[in-house]
Design brief:
Mean pLDDT: 76
Largest sheet: 4 strands, antiparallel
Shape: globular
Order of helices and strands: HHHHHEEHEEH
Low-confidence stretches: 17-36, 158-167
Helix content: 40-55%
Number of helices: 7
């Protein structure tokens, strides 16, 4: 003898099943999307923090690959991205002393035009040296294409016989 399931109860079971499938579908869709891209303000703040802390290798990771390669090609032979930052940023910008809060209070004003953005920066020693950086929105998120005034105006001269490199 089989018992019939009342209509109201069948509807409830069906609703739960449909709801569960919807939740699984949404979870799978969100997982497929990956992490949300980093907003340009966050990318600039992370770049400024890395430079301010003297972590130039980390700062280089925020640069667009083409921009980083261009920077290295313009420098003397055997230069690295981190080495260029070390040579071009005044030492005073990374002297934190006891107060590391200077890394936290940069003013960042971003203007966007499609996949490109420009950020005016001020408020910290590093930001005051850089003044402006440019970014591009790549698939992985925002990456810097312009390094800031102190880096871009730094004169890295290739070594010639008998001469030393100057900045």
């Amino acid at each position: 003898m089989t018992r019939a399931i009342p209509f109201a109860r069948r509807s409830s079971v069906r609703s739960r099943l449909v709801l569960g499938m919807c939740v699984l579908s949404m979870t799978a869709a969100l997982a497929a999307c990956g992490e949300a891209p980093t907003p340009p303000n966050e990318a600039v703040q992370n770049y400024l923090n890395a430079l301010g802390a003297g972590n130039y290798t980390n700062a280089c990771s925020f640069l667009d690959t083409r921009a980083r390669e261009s920077l290295i090609r313009a420098a003397p032979a055997r230069s690295t991205c981190a080495g260029i930052f070390s040579r071009c940023l005044p030492h005073k910008t990374i002297v934190l002393g006891k107060d590391q809060t200077q890394l936290l209070y940069a003013n960042i004003e971003v203007s966007r035009a499609g996949a490109d953005a420009t950020a005016q920066v001020s408020g910290t020693l590093v930001a005051s040296e850089l003044k402006r950086v440019t970014l591009i929105n790549e698939r992985a998120g925002w990456e810097l294409t312009g390094f800031g005034q102190a880096i871009e105006r730094c004169r890295l001269v290739r070594r010639h016989r008998g001469r030393k490199a100057t900045t």
